[in-house]
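Comment thread on ticket #2218

A.B. wrote:
> Attaching the input chain for the structure job we discussed in standup.
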Amino acid sequence: MIPLLLSLALGLALFFLLYRLARRSRVPAEGSAYQFVEARGSLHALQRELLPRDFIDRLFDRRDLEFVSAQAPADVRQLFLTERKRISILWVQRVRSEILKLMQFHRGHSRFHSKISVLTEIRLAADFAALLIICRMLEAIFYFRGPYAAPHLVDSAAATAARLCTVSEKSLAFLNAPALRAVAGESPRGSATI
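C.D. wrote:
> Ran it. Output below, let me know if you need it in another format.
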């Protein structure tokens, strides 16, 4: 009886998720530009600041801990671990925050400006959900066990976020400056330009 109830609950949750994804509501025009700018900023922050492989490798490099442990007194080692823990938690919170902004963009605006299939939207929803869960898990792990406790989970979060960035970049491609310059160049002389 319990497996049947669990299956029904899971089926109901999937149905609700698909219903929310398939529902095509009209997006109000006001605020739309802000959503595009915010999504573009989040994408930029993720790609250039938070997810570069060398940055992640450096942030979670155990060689720093080994060096401090070998060269410094115990109180310096403790201070190092405390600060690295704080920085790691801030990193994962910032990744989560930027991903939430991209998710909001995809939920409200992306489907109106790029051709995304229902299957792609379902994959996106699954990736967003998985990444948000991973971020919460990482926050808890960093808080209780320190920044070096889950290197594979950090890699998984970075890989999932990179996939989401790739899809988001395609959805925001129409905002690229070269495309806008091409449109502006096509305007007839004496008329309004972009």
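A.B. wrote:
> Thanks. Noting for the ticket: The chain has one domain: 33-172.
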